[in-house]
Protein 1
Amino acid sequence: MTLAGSPQSSDGGAGNVGSGNVGSGNVGSGGDSSVGGADLAIEVVGVTKRFPGVIANSDVNIAVRRGTVHAVVGENGAGKSTLMKVLYGMLRPDEGEIRIGGKPVTFHSPSDAIAAGVGMVHQHFMLADNFTVLENIVLGSEPTARGALNFGAARQKILALSKTYGLDLAPDELVENLGVGDRQRVEIAKVLFRGARLLILDEPTAVLVPHEVDELFDNLRELKSEGLTILFISHKLDEVISVADDITVIRRGMTVGTANPHSITPRQLAEMMVGSELPSPQTRTDTVREAVVLSVAGLTVADADGRDIVQDVSFDIRAGQVFGIAGVEGNGQSELVEALMGIRPAKSGRITLNGADLTRQTTRERRLAGIGYIPEDRQRQGLILEGSLWENRVLGHSDSPPNIKGPLIDRAGARRDTERIVREFDVRTPGIDIPALALSGGNQQKLIVGRELSGSPVLLIASQPTRGVDVGAQAAIWEQVRNARAAGLAVLLISADLEELIGMSDAIQVILRGRFVGAADPATVTAEELGSAMTGAGSAAGAA
Amino acid sequence: MTTSTVAETAAPAPRRFSRTSPSLLLVVAMGAFLVLSAVRTFTGGYDLTSSGTVAAGLSAAVPIGLAGLGGLWAERSGVVNIGLEGMMILGTWGCGFLGYNHGPWAGLLFGTLLGAAGGLIHAIATVTFGVDHIISGVAINIIAPGLALYLTKVTFAHYEGGGQKQSPPINDAKAITLPFSHWLHTIEDKHWFAVSDLAGLIGGVTTRLSLVTLLAVLVLVGSGWILWRTAFGLRLRSCGEAPYAAESLGVNVYKYKYIAVVVSGAMAGLGGSALAISAHQFRDGQTGGRGFIGLAALIFGNWRPGSLAAGAGLFGYTDAIQLRSSAAVHALLLLMAIALALIAVWQWRTGQRTIAVVALVIAVLSVLWFADTKKVPDELVGTTPYVVTILVLALASQRLRMPKADGKVYRRGEGH
Amino acid sequence: MTSRDDGTGPASQVRIRAGLVNRLRQRYPLRSVLLGFAAPIGAILFAALASSAILSLGGHSPGDVFQTMFKQAGKPTPFVDMVNQAMVYYLSAVAVSIGFRMNLFNIGVEGQYSLAALGAAYVGGQLTGGGPLHIVAEVVVAVLVGAAWAGIAGVLKVYRGVSEVISTIMLNAIAVGLGSYLLHKLGQSSGNNIQTKPISSSGQFPGISYSGTHSKIFGFLIVAVVLGFAYWFIAGRTRFGFRIRVTGLNEEAAVASGVNVKRMTLVAMLLSGGVAGLVGLPELLGQTHTFSQTAQSGLGFAGIAIALLGRNSPIGMALAAVLWSFLGKSANQLDFIGVPREIAAIMQGVILLSVVIAYELVRRYRLVLQQKDVAAQLATGEPTERDAPSAPVVTA
């Protein structure tokens, strides 16, 4: 299926595969698991799943023992989510099979998976906010009596579940009144209500604050002691090591091995996860200059309900300096960034850029003053997915050259500059007229980085700049940021990837519940120290 | 335990009013009734609460309420249906087509079926093809009147008693009168505060009550029961709140949306039929925007059947009152001012100062208008439902809660 | 996937042979252009089929019907009529499409133009003399009234989060009542009818003669054409137009990129309402010179249909307006062969419904093709690359 006349196609490349579904039940991948199926809750044998241009899973093998917590770890984009969707019947594998209790099963839909005792707790909660806890839990498998929904029976069963597994549910509360941890317990209850014996939890801790994580792990141990099996997907290694009985590591869509959580260190696990070619984010040469570019003093930001979500934060970023902010998601980072960009008003405090007061300026004025912005969610905030690449080049820069001619958009100029970005930042695309949504995540992100580094900004605000991109794109993005830093760019870096944060930053502050709680010296601090400082457990790690 | 966890860690969800309890509704209804009595006594607008007005209001409310109910079914499943007007038109024509020689009930059935057919088209466009709900609704509103008139010309125009724009007459549906209702009329004529008003209210409901009206009430109650008390209803509503969550639990979202939208069309068709029966024939342009008023009643009723019925009742009532007495209409201004003042107080207390002031200003203007004139121009009375809906949206919108995924195009398997 | 145009080949090759033809082909690949036409043509064919079926069921010959309609359209008087009607439709469509570009659904063009026409007629009737300024005053009043009425919906949307669909539906109905109230208040009776004081000759827009008929093409055509150009230029070429487009496609990205979305929403609503205010003017200034209850209604909904059919493009909407007007006007002749003219409304509705379905199908098909292109590019770009499956198959 390779194109005639495409010169570089040397071997029938892994990527160039049609989207054709090979159907399910394509068994016959050799190596029948020798372990008896009896004590295995679920087995994944040789599962391969392809998408146009991408192989998301390639010959994945996992064996999960009954009554254990089994972790599947891998980087963002390693193919974990695809695997979970295959396990839950949301996607059909192109090759390979899934066995439950030793017998091969084919799931055509989540209903089949549910019927087979497999339940899924999604990373993004699948809850109806305007329904009660009870309604959310029973939906799809409602007990009925004389044609009507039997609320009494449902309530009893839920309370019983709640008691058995320590889930602490209030059946008649509206879900929208619940906190994140409670919502997650509702998700778990949904699965248990359907009689699931195997629970898949997809990145369950991503949205939790530390003590909620502890509560979740208590729940998981409770479930395990009742004989349930848990498949736990994560890329947070210390959590995995603390809760899992077995670990399977996947990398680039393939299983690369298993590990024993009692003997492995996070470092070793990380190496398994990323492989030997781990690109280093190091920026050791010192490029920090004297001039302060961004100065934030006493910044407080309120959320929609009027509560202070960022409190009295002050810091300076100098030219040529990368200033990192470490913190568990949801501790005010997003709001801080939005306040700096003028998307969200500052309640009090002062923001100055090269001495000019920006506090009351609009987003547009701040951008014109030389702030580049890589938003944390590129598809939601960083791109017009239906727009062409060159239009996306203009996005956020529709008031400055090379995109404009007076009040007009300079199409030719914008197109030329887009070609430049595509070239310099290695954006893999057939052209600049295709819509951004046709690109892969990594290439979308490279386009954004290229755009935000154009027009010689003085400050770059980079929120999760390499989230969900492949290793190659990650290295490229780091390289570009490093170069800009050497040229005197000030960078505010916010990342959940602590290696990235430590490697790239010249200074780090830890944010917790909207406050800066301590500084860390990236030259000496370890990811472990930083991690515990983020949870408020450790004192400020490696005092700067 | 749960609450303390929430309080410490996550953002406590914004304060929200609990679901309106029946007892609260009762108190509000009684309060409104007393105010109405007082206004009636004070202004002498006797028709405000006369049994004649109430009866007329009730029959005017039926088509509106049924259209609103159609909206409720569709929107609870997440499909916005502004094609209600068109489906209603199909219903009026259908009722005329079978009604004139097979009686009102055959007409009603056929009208309902045609409405359902309109709903089916809307479902195909929005659910199967993922077309924007508003666009599909607009298309249906363009097709339906044309189709009805076309069909009228190829059918009714050749029938005795029919015409280019109307059907031959349809017989009336049976009506029932309860034996004690003439007593009530006696009490009503005394014009005692509250007592006579109550007599008028009950008298209006129990005198010559059409079986169609009774059917509409049954449909309303039945819809409420199905949507809120059965597993089917829970699933249907889940498609309007969180379709991808429903999908992840094995609910066939397409199926429920289809059912909901077809039922929605059937309700609108039924409403159209009720209209045709009460007018004793099909006429071109008969619906006169009642499909849209139904939509207004749905919003006014916050997407719930009980308050939807109250909205339809209110709009039907203003419709009736306009035909009966200009003094009564005039009194309505005062009523509106009182309602606005109440909103102003409530908004002030919830901290929405600007809105409270705006509400108060409009209230004062209404009072001034009331004091300055003897009569509200007829042309403006017909706009009451729309003005009320706009005011509710503008001044009390935080009380409104439409289904969360309402109007969003759902594609299977494209959730996260 | 066998033969494809050069545009998708390796970038280096294209750059070397960057002739004009190649660039055009790259920007507008044949496939894409054909796909673009497939939808409306398919929809029209489907509508012809559907209406043929309805006609046959009613015992009429579709062939006769279509023949009568085409014959009618060729005669001078009906032709002028058709052009005039198309112009009005076009203005309405432009008004609607300004909203569409911002993801705003201005269903209220109906109410906006009727109040605006009333206002313009009243002011025009009060003024005398003043030459061209008389006309300018009328136009300005119409634009202001239309914008103000739409502005209510805009303010409700921006400050109270009220869906403009709902508020404009309500405002339409209120406009009907308010309009007839004001007409009674401001108008004078003439026979059975109440109308505003007729506009004197200086406030009338001169028409354009057309050979073979006494009917004149409304001079307002010039305004419509200029408006079309202005719309094309502002929407497609200016920074303001770009901000509108960005906001319509992704509001959050627009905010992050520095667009003041609230202000843009209000501005777009005002602009849409302002243009809507013009809808009633061609007829008012070119023919009736007075506003009465018999003024044309339903133009707002036609505008929605035409904007959708023409995909918000000035040329597309012009073509769609002509089609709409052709169907509506030529159908009048059908009464003479015993076919109800309402068949035209059915055709219009069916075209609208099938065209939006067709556009949707084409959009999805196009996306699949583009993803294949990108996949091919990735494969040839670096054979061993196994790119991260960030979003498996992009969801639209």
Protein 2
Amino acid sequence: MSRTFKTVSRRSFLAAMGSLAAAPVFSRSTLAESLLNREAADGVPLFASAFRKADGAFGIGIVDDLGQILAQISLPGRGHGIAVAPDGSRFVAFARRPGTFAVVVRPFEDSRPELITSQPGRHFYGHGCFSADGRLLYAVENDFRAARGVIGIYDMSGGETRRIGEFETNGIGPHDILLSPDRLTLVVANGGIETRPDTGREKLNLDTMAPSVVFIDSRSGDLLAQHALDKDLHQLSLRHMALDAQGRVWVGGQFEGSLDEVPPLVGVFSRDGAPQLTAIPDPVASGLRNYIGSVTANAGGDVIAASAPRGGQTLFWNSATCAYLGARTVPDGCGVAPIDQGSFLISDGNGALSLVADPAAPAEILARPPGIAWDNHLFTLGL
Amino acid sequence: MRFWVLAAFAVFSAVPASAADFNPPIARMISNYIQPAMAEFATTADRLPDAVTSVCSDASPSAVAGFRTAYADTLAAFSRIHFLRLGPLLEDDRLSRLAFLPDPRGIAQRQIRKIYAKKDAGVGAAESLRDKSVAVQGLTALQLIAFDKESEVVLGRADADRDFTCAYALAIARNVAAIADDVAADWEDKDGFQSVLLSGGPQNDRYRSSQEAMESVFNALVTGLIIVRDQDLLPALGASEAKARPNRFPFSRSANSIQYLSGELHGLQDAVTSLELEDMTPSDFHWIFAALDFEFGNAQKLLSELEPPLRQTFGQGESYSQVTVLAITLQSIRDTMALELAGALGLAGGFNSLDGD
């Protein structure tokens, strides 16, 4: 089996995606003309996000850097995170917790998406990542009978995806997962919240929850390091992560304690150092309702963005100095992806895709596809 | 910010205990606002093809004025319905085909240039136009080909592209009229979308309760307020007065910005009013309705003090600060709706702000 990645032009990409489109908007959508007619179609960055449509249907939308929807892929239920293969040849869209499906999309091949179902006794938590060579997929899962977080390991090298094993995450409720720059270490945010399929999304252990960020050897599953916050912050569920230019992990949390408190929500973790919490100045902090939705680095890794949809704000930090840079208002904004050299594309529940090129200037709304509510996370397809 | 914190608190302290029946307000909004507004849009849009034909057969001052009026009337009616992003307006990409907004990077302009470069005959008939990009089919595209940058009507003028432009403009006018008719008819259809919206409950796949149906209606109104402020005003205001971009006001090219903004806000206010929510709202929160009327009134007053056409006059006198105050007023209206009124009625807010992950 050849492992060579074929360079495929945008035109064949779009032609192939046409077969995946859930709705016949493709022929008439601006994609067909906006991208095919663009002067340099092959250089256009693409993004993907889960959505809910006004008619209640769920799917994944692929958009260009002008916010135009190029293709839609139906999902059997509400989606959440997307793992993108390092060469961009495939991506895997996960069900929102406690969903049991994931969908593998190979946009360069004229094939139907492949549906993966979590194995008995497990459900997905909504996020995953690929190994550096693209051969393996790591998915965070719940061994719900044992209330134990696991990383399901899937072989993606064949025609069909196969689950070949699992590692412990050494915590409850693992949420985001990423591969560190050494290409060998997996970083997992154990959110700490116990849920069970029979009680849906009900949080069962808020009094005793113990979130952590763990560093795991991807070859052996060995726990290399585990970091927790001070005891008084044990209700800060550590959930979403991004890597900065120095390889440190920025983690955004959701505080499960009283709304009267205004705890720190974003911390910086590394394998061998103590976690460092960042400060969010008032009055911004008190308006966030203790909830961070996404954490993302810009292309250079020198600026970190963290969205706070309940506060309608997206916050920015200088990653080198940990200096807070400011916040921009994006109502119900949650998905954040890097775009261009130093900018961010932000998706929101009211359908808008907004560009923040400068933390000091207002977000620019690029598009607002009618009837689309963008869901939680936006990913660069890295093509 | 203190206001904001208090408002957020209100959301959590005022949730009614029992499930309310939201079907009556939704039904009132359908019959007292949506149906008449859609009918008005269809009526005005139906006059557009004749106005195009007239100015294209003889671009006399009266025909030019007639086209300008027909276009402005259609736009005014459109400004009152575009925020109804539910059901009929979403089917078949109708809303994007009626007007491609926002378009800060000029996608429509670029595509139209290409259409002209290759003299694409497909835009010369409504039937083939509907298979083109949504960006080149509607009122935004018509504005680009029928008006110049100085807001003069160029449709029907004797130049090399006259016949091509006239055929294209007529196709757009017929396309818009046909979509407007379809949307109006669909909202009248008792077995159509309104039956879905009014039958929220366990048996309804889309709306599991009348509250869910109400939340989708309410969210459309809040999104409409976000559009007016964040999408229609802020890009024109820019980062500072020196960086103001008056041509970013919606429909500034045809000199319709003030009328369009005013229509959006009148429409949103009338739509909220048509719900008649007072009886469902705890008496502690009845001040909200007077506050909304007051703020909407302030917004209209600010708009009425601006000198049309905005593309040419913006920046003169107090106009920049007036629009700045207008943006603040709209933020306040949005907060009153999305935080206070939604909270008082126990309605859930934004998609991502809900039960999160």
